[in-house]
Amino acid sequence: MIKPNYLLIALLLPFFMGNIKATTYYVDSQGGNDANSGISTSAAWNTISKVNSFGFNFGDTISFKAGSRFILTATFFPPNNNITFNSYDSGARPVIDGNGVYQCVQLGYPNNNGKSYITFNGIKFVNGAGINIALIECDHITFESCNIDSGKEGGIYSGLGSYLTIRNSTLSYHNTTKPYGGQHGIYVDGTDNVLMEYDTANYNAHSGFRVAYGYDNASTDSMIMRYCVSQFNGDYAVENDGNTNSSFYYNLFENNPANTWSGSIYIWNVYTPPTNCNYYNNTIITHGNGNMSVQIDNYSAISNIVFKNNIFYNTGSSSHVIWFNGISTPTGWTFNNNLYYSSVNDYSHFWNPTTSSDVSFATWQGYGYDANSIYANPLFNNYATGDYSLQSGSPAINSGTFVGLTTDINGNSVPSTYPDLGAFQHLTTQNIRANIKVLLQGPNNNGTMSTFLNSHNMIPLSQPFNSSPWNYSGSESVSKIPSNIVDWILVELRSTIANYAVVARRAAFLKNDGTIVDLDGSSSLQFNNINSGNYYIVIKYINTIETWSKNGGLLFTNTTVSYDFTSAQSQAYGNNLLLVGSKWCIYSGDINQDGIVDGDDLLSINNDNSTITYHVVKDLNGDGLVDLSDLIIDDDNNTNQIARIMPSGAL
């Protein structure tokens, strides 16, 4: 047995701890003090005012403590570019509260120049005076997993600028009484290159998503809205008054049944006509008498608008699906491969712009629209509860045309031929055997890992991931550990859409050759009742860096899939693997499972000679001992600043 040289360790540790990186500043509304340095959780600042007045450097992060509520005494003006705002600790998202007096965030005119490269992640903004968040002539602004709710006059206003991303966020309950005060979930006013995905905009006094031409009378160009839900807003789910070269796909749009003369989609032209806009695979639910699924005003200059693969479902006795407010048939519009249905009549309420009267679906087709579309009940799984996925036997199944999209609103794979109509691809589940291979750095020796723990009866008979931070409640257990087993390992399948939810988890055995096997010690790992689609494979072990499969995930469509983490560095997300000999390995050394190998892990390594029934977490190489060899592994990875790499927004 090799004994650690404690003097050597004491001399080397100061060098191990010297990682240099951009600074993280901490803010705690309850336990902080603005006189503190802010650079640790124990020396956190207390107020947004301190953040407003501080000069940050490129790449700095400002982290608000979970559960904190910051009631503003002045509008929040983030002072620098290239910074990130997020949260730390467990609990509810930190809240920035405008108290009905101040805007929660303002970037750009009139108080400062337009800002660039600012990210807000996991923060709640409420009770802003006027609009919650105002962005003027900004670029590369991102809101990820935020709640932007209950503003006096709306959620986000973005005037001009470019590259705005709003992902996995809510923009709801901006519902002060009309008439006009704004009260849109988001108002994009001439901002180009906008991405909105996985967002929810509900119960706003006006529209969920409003897109306009900008105060320079230019367009909002190159916008994508996908995988979003907009429901029960006062006017429309989404308004288009100036989009060009934009796409709206795999969204759920539903109007408020309590309102009249409103609807789901509104396309109109004041200064800059919408052009080259595609509406693909949306599920559009329209309630109430006199409301419209698609309302089009001032459309003579609007061109190249395409509706394909959508489901239009109306419940009002005098509602319209396509309502052109004009006297001529529009040109350059395409309606095809859609499904239409009214639950209360024969769906005679298409608008005829030539004779100003309602016409039947057949007459509408006679005008040259919807030649390959159908009028039929889409057979939702449960309309009453708002489950608009499709039953088996739905006429919408396999009735679409391929438009280049690969993923539905739930992240499920879409076939390249005959996709389903609407936002929800119909699924069939299957049991899948996964052939996964992975090597751990610590126990690895030329492609073969040590089975010392198994041969010395140090592996428990039940899976060991039932405590924090894994909190896996699986019942996997055996009466005897099979031969050639290194240890238990935890495998997750995760969605490829934000927030990358866990779809399935299994505790399994890792063999000495790197293959992950089921409880019999030989069969491939089985996942039951998995929907076809793309998934990330995530590998977790008691003292290694959590490792994700490569960007985009793996397509699970067959009963057997294979994935080898050892074959190439690119097999891991962010190339987060270490080459040992000729094989790529997962990094060892994250003893406390906080996602980084650092000085805390080094300090926790100590000699443990006590009698144990399961090896200690600090035994990185799996030889049953904690000694200098473990310290060397941890030191190398600490020096190289090894950390978990995963998609932005993953939890």
Q: What would your notes on this structure say?
A:
This protein is 7% helix and 36% strand. The radius of gyration is 28 Å and the shape is globular. The strands form nine sheets. Strands 1, 2, 4, 7, 10, 13, 15, 18, 19, 22, 25, 28 and 31 form a 13-stranded parallel β-sheet that branches. A nine-stranded parallel β-sheet has the order 6-9-12-14-17-21-24-27-30, with no helix packed on it. Strands 38, 41, 42, 43, 44, 45, 46, 47 and 48 form a nine-stranded mixed β-sheet that branches. The protein contains six helices and 50 strands. By secondary structure, it is mainly β. 49% of the residues are buried. A hairpin with a 2-residue loop joins β39 (444-445) and β40 (448-449). The protein has a domain at 432-639.
